[in-house]
Write a structure and sequence with these properties.
Elements lengths: L3 H4 E4 L3 H10 L1 E6 L5 H12 L3 E9 L3 E4 L2 E4 L3 E8 L13
Antiparallel strand pairs: 1-2, 2-6, 3-6, 4-5
């Protein structure tokens, strides 16, 4: 992985991740399948100008979906939980205009 924008695909914004953000200072991102913890940490620190305390990753398996008699499969993907250090400003994805 060379490009930081390839490592982090998009932020995951759900009820669970919003609760984690408020209580544990953790952010959740969809990341590249081959990305490692040090690469994710470097990408978040560089892109958002914050210090990262911890990175946890989870491989998510794609579901089998059917359309009538035909079945297909959604792709596997990886998500990362990034915990910021104490005293760091929380990243806001939706700023008030």
């Amino acid at each position: 992985m060379k490009n930081l924008y390839e490592v982090i695909r998009r932020p995951l914004i759900t009820e669970k991740t919003t609760t984690l953000k408020e209580t544990q200072r953790a952010l959740c991102f969809e990341v590249h399948r081959d990305a490692t913890k040090p690469e994710i940490k470097k990408a978040v620190e560089t892109l958002f100008s914050v210090k990262v305390a911890d990175v946890r990753v989870a491989n998510v398996h794609g579901k089998v979906k059917r359309q009538g008699r035909y079945s297909g499969r959604r792709p596997d993907w990886k998500k990362a939980y990034v915990v910021l250090k104490k005293g760091e400003k929380m990243i806001e994805f939706f700023e008030q205009a």
